[in-house]
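Progress against Task 2.4 (sequence-to-structure conversion) is shown through the following example record, which the project officer requested during the mid-term review.
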Amino acid sequence: MPMTPILVATDFSEGSRAALEQGVRLAEAWGAELYVVHVIRHEAADEFADLVAQSEGEAIRRLTSAAETELTQELAGLPLASPPSVRVTMGSPSGEIISAVEQSGAGLLVMGATGGSGRRFGTVAGRCVRKSTASVMLVPESQRGGFERIVAGVDFSPASGPLVSRAAELARLDACELHILHVCQVAWESARWGGVPSNAIALEQEMRARLAAQYADQLAPLVSGVQATFEVETHADYGAGLMEHAAKWRADLVAVGTTGRSKIASLLLGSTAEKVMRETPCAVLAVKP
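Structure tokens generated for the chain above:
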């Protein structure tokens, strides 16, 4: 099942406009309900009230009306079969967005990779990735239309199945390449004792064969109908290995999980997901299991 319904959070930045286009594209392709939310910060209303010498209530009314008009204009130029549900609210952006996810039952939250602050994966996006029940897609300003190459990082934990399924859904939609990547560190490279064993090559070949068999058994059935490849990279750092692989293949979407194989691995992989979302220049999808 696709990640539906879809919620787009916009702050009217260029990144948000790209996110809105992507959200509309996916909703139309999947026949999904589309929700759009814009959050007015309390501080903005207070500052506006002071500037125009009006009451806070009147300032909120005028800001809300302006935001609704802006949303209507942005949506008017997009290929929508039916109008989405549009909501303008006031409060903490991350809190209101997470609340909108819960109320809409959204399976996918789409946001600009850079917001009004100009920073990639800022505070609002970070909180949404950590606390939202939906998978989160960050879209850079440069991403327009479908994807051509997707890289999905897997660790063979139970979360890897949903991750591959979501990446495959997008790959099917865009008829694009899907590279499924497992990054690992060979034991003797991380050990504080000894050196490289004499049979290191044979051991690594055995490890790669075991991982390929595990992929064929657990994950390959999820990518039927997709031009998918499975690869193993050895690297000292999971996130860096994933980003280097994505750069090598010129990926325009990287899919990562937000949980790992254990409570400790979950914390590590969660921070890795945030690192990838912050440092990868292309679109990133953080998949919730």
